[in-house]
Amino acid sequence: MNHLSNNKARGSALTPLIGGIVILLAVLFFLVKLATSGYYSDVEASTPSATQTRIMPAGSVTMGDGTPVGQRTGEQIFNKICIQCHAADGNIPNAPRVTHNNEWAPRIAKGFETLFNNALNGFNAMPAKGGQADLTDDELKRAIAYMANQSGGNLEAPAVGAASGAAASGADASAASSAASDSAGAAAPAAVTASADGKKIFDTTCVACHGATSAIPNSPKITKNDEWAPRIKQGKETLFKHALEGFTGPGGSLMPAKGGNANLTDDEVKAAVTYMVNQSGGKI
Ligand code: HEC
Ligand code: HEC
């Protein structure tokens, strides 16, 4: 008698306990799934948050690993940003590829200061700061040195965590030219804004992937009417949206938001789209 009711009592105490453990496991499972899958699916999809990520303004962009702005190494920056165009097996016209010493030799011969100024302000199809506006001067120098030093160079970049820091280097009088170009960096986009010259934007930012002779796969090339025709059919609002927010084609090719140059205004990007389309059989 006594024995039986004891067992009963134990059984009824165990039931909620087991139930609780099952619920706890289910919650943990979903949390882990959320934490591990969220990032990638967001970036692929054209969700508002993915778009936000692509067009995040300078300052809020981290490397994704939480390294604070100013403390990122040349290798980190290269692997995240410069690699898009400077990869060893890249095919962006004119972009010197890492580890191709012959391509880097004439660049390195210009001297670190010139390379830095050109990377800072933009240079032909090389967007200012590679399109990553929040890079500090020191970080940009590290990324250049990282690439050049993989490619036969021997440039000395500011160490990570150096006391000078990002702000100090901008104000550093020894780099008078670099300080000047710092403010030019801020002024340059404004100057371009005034005109919103589609051809100019195309020639500086879009040509790398949309030039008539660009080797980038799947991007519609300027003056190739047949490549543009199906795109134009989507209507100009869609084209503008895809150019502004970024767009992954059915073949997995990426059109980066604003062509990778976050400094461009919406009007400038639209002007560049209009220019390309109208050179390629369209009329928008
Ligand atoms: C969207 C493509 C693109 C991205 C992203 C990019 N570059 Fe470039 N870069 C180019 C092209 C194209 C050239 C060649 C320009 C020319 O010589 O006409 C170039 C040239 C350069 C040069 C040589 C400049 C000179 O004076 O010869 C340096 C240095 C450089 N890039 C650094 C960087 C760094 C550092 C990053 C990353 C922070 C980066 N680039 C990201 C396209 C890019
Ligand atoms: C790093 C390479 C790259 C750069 C730089 C680039 N694009 Fe693109 N773009 C692409 C690729 C690749 C596609 C095609 C994606 C697909 O459909 O597979 C594309 C597609 C487009 C489309 C068609 C979108 C659609 O809906 O079919 C427009 C419009 C466009 N780009 C505008 C621009 C403009 C404007 C610039 C310069 C401000 C620019 N792109 C710079 C790679 C680039």
Describe the structure using short key phrases.
Cytochrome Bc1 Complex, Chain D, domain 2; iron ion binding; mainly alpha; binds heme C; 284 residues; 2 strands; 12 helices; 1% strand
What order do the helices and strands follow?
HHHHHHHHHHHEEH
Poorly predicted runs of 5 or more residues: 38-44, 56-61, 163-195
- Could you tell me the radius of gyration in angstroms? 25 Å
Q: What's the average pLDDT?
A: 77
Q: Which structural class should the secondary elements be placed in?
A: mainly alpha
Note the quaternary state here. single chain
Percent of sequence in beta strands? under 5%
Instruction: Give the helix level as a range of percent.
Output: 55-70%
What is the CATH T-level topology of the largest domain? Cytochrome Bc1 Complex, Chain D, domain 2
CATH superfamily descriptor of the largest domain: Cytochrome c-like domain
Largest sheet: 2 strands, antiparallel
List the domain count as a whole number. 3
**E-strand count:** 2
Order of the strands making up the biggest sheet: 1-2
Kindly provide the name of the CATH class of the largest domain. Mainly Alpha
| Terminus-to-terminus distance | 91 Å
Ligand roster = heme C
CATH architecture descriptor of the largest domain: Orthogonal Bundle
Principal-axis shape equals: flat
